[in-house]
Automatic annotation (TrEMBL):
Keywords: Signal. It holds the Pfam family FG-GAP_3. This is Repeat domain-containing protein. It comes from the Bacteria. The keyword Signal applies.
Length: 116
């Protein structure tokens, strides 16, 4: 595989993978919520609420297929810049994490999205 400007990886040749839902760039996160090893499309609200579209993989007619899931987290009042996602319990589904300005972190386990 020839080296490219993408640090040695071949560029994704599927074109656009998500057309967007009208959210600003700083609101969007790509995170695997259901443990299927495909990133899902998340939109974070001002107070940490999360809407999700699950990644169903390449669509038959080209592009990518996304399944709208709706709101998966109502938020805890933290600003979206303090929201992160990590698999805290090893179930391959990313969990909701708030990292405060002092570096302390609080987590909520992802038990709403069924594991794939």
């Amino acid at each position: 595989m020839p080296a490219t400007r993408t640090c040695g990886y071949d560029p994704l040749r599927k074109g656009e993978v998500a057309s967007g839902v009208g959210a600003a760039r700083d609101q969007v996160r790509l995170v695997d919520l259901n443990g299927d090893n495909r990133v899902d499309y998340l939109v974070l609200g001002d107070h940490g609420q999360v809407r999700a579209w699950l990644n169903d993989g390449p669509a038959a007619g080209g592009g990518w297929a996304w399944k709208r899931t709706g709101e998966v987290a109502s938020g805890v009042g933290a600003p979206r810049d303090n929201i992160d996602f990590a698999d805290l319990d090893g179930d391959k589904r990313n969990d909701y994490v708030v990292v405060r300005d002092n570096g302390a972190a609080s987590g909520w386990l992802n038990d709403r999205i069924p594991r794939s």
